[in-house]
Amino acid sequence: MGQTLPTQEGIRVVKEKSYKRGSTLELTWTAGSTTDRVTIELLQDTVVNTMAKDTLNVKRYAWDIPPKMKTGDNYQIRVVRTGTTDILFITDRFAIKRKVPLLLILVPAVAVVGTTVAIAGGSGGSSSSNDLPMPVKPN
After folding, report:
1. Spatial distance between the Cα atoms of 21 and 69, rounded to a whole number of angstroms
2. 20 - beta bridge partners?
3. What is the 3-state secondary structure (H, E, C) of the chain?
4. Using a CB cutoff of 8 Å and minimum separation of 24, what contacts does 22-25 make?
5. Second label for 31, Cα 20 to 30 Å away, from 69, 92, 107, 118?
6. 17 to each of 6, 81, 108, how far by Cα in Å?
7. How many CB atoms sit inside 10 A of residue 27's CB?
8. Average pLDDT value over all residues in the chain
9. Are residues 54 and 37 in contact, defined by beta-carbon separation less than 8 angstroms?
10. Are the CB atoms for 65 and 22 separated by under 8 Å?
11. Contact call for residues 42 and 80 (beta carbons, < 8 A)
12. Which of 15, 35, 33, 34 is nearest to 25 (CA)?
């Protein structure tokens, strides 16, 4: 997981179409000189976030996806030569997914709540469980 496949100079296809929060996406590229200064950016639609600014072009980058990263589609990573608009590398679009699917989180929680209601005797009726029974009248 996390490997890239070459397509053309400076552009790579991300092997996986989605990555889980908390995982690592490893990128490599061939464009530019190792003496170039580059900025590595995370894109989502029109939002640009800088991941590494004005660093040497070592032609690789390992991004540890934060555990609380916003999930979604249309993410890309691009590498630009610092101070220019020259794109040395850009990934295909990929998605960030939850580490554990939401359904696996919700199903046990619903089961616990349902069990608690059943044990507590929640019948949904209108009588209060604090009411005392009426005493039997003597003959």
Report:
1. 6
2. 97
3. CCCEEEEECCEEEECCCEEECCCEEEEECCCCCCCCEEEEEEEECCEEEEEEEEEECCCEEEEECCCCCCCEEEEEEEEEECCCCCEEEECCCEEEECCCCHHHHHHHHHHHHHHHHHHCCCCCCCCCCCCCCCCCCCC
4. 22/65, 22/66, 22/67, 22/99, 23/65, 23/99, 24/62, 24/63, 24/64, 24/65, 25/62, 25/63, 25/65, 25/77, 25/94
5. 69
6. 15, 26, 28
7. 19
8. 78
9. yes
10. yes
11. no
12. 15
CA distances from 73 to 37, 54, 94, 95, 130 (A): 29, 27, 6, 4, 53
Best CA proximity match to 78, nearest among 43, 34, 107: 43
Q: For residue 71, give both structure tokens.
A: 């999930």
* Model confidence, pTM: 0.64
